[in-house]
Amino acid sequence: MRRNVPDLAQTLLDNCLCHNVRMASRVVSRAYDEALRSTGLRATQIAVLAAVGARGALSIKSLADSLEMERTTLTRNLRPLEEQGLVAIAPEARHRSRMLTLTSAGKAALLKALPLWEKAQQSSMEQLGDQRWPVVQKAFADLIHNMHRATSA
User: Which end of the chain has fewer CB within 10 Å, C or N?
Assistant: First the structure.
């Protein structure tokens, strides 16, 4: 029996979790980026600022782990934030770790972005509806937890 490549390919695109999550991520990221445009920051940068702000001083490795991000990707994302004076990165210390802190300018940028983020968040939640938002939120949390545990084993 011959396999129909176009049909198989379309089935993959329609059903692949990785592909669909990435597509959703790009669509959602564009919406948040547009909402945050006036701050000069992207949604990914706001998330980094929020993570540093929530945790206080922490190492780049700890931050990368908490964001499920590769260290090299995080370092690349931190560079413009450091250049803008929003985060401070201390020189290497013990075990080659570098500590991150949110500067006062970073705190101000985060506070300025918060109402714009809240508007984008509200819009996204409305797209899902009151019933589906908690289900989606839990599904993502479970997926992250279970996939992380499976890859760590």
Answer: N
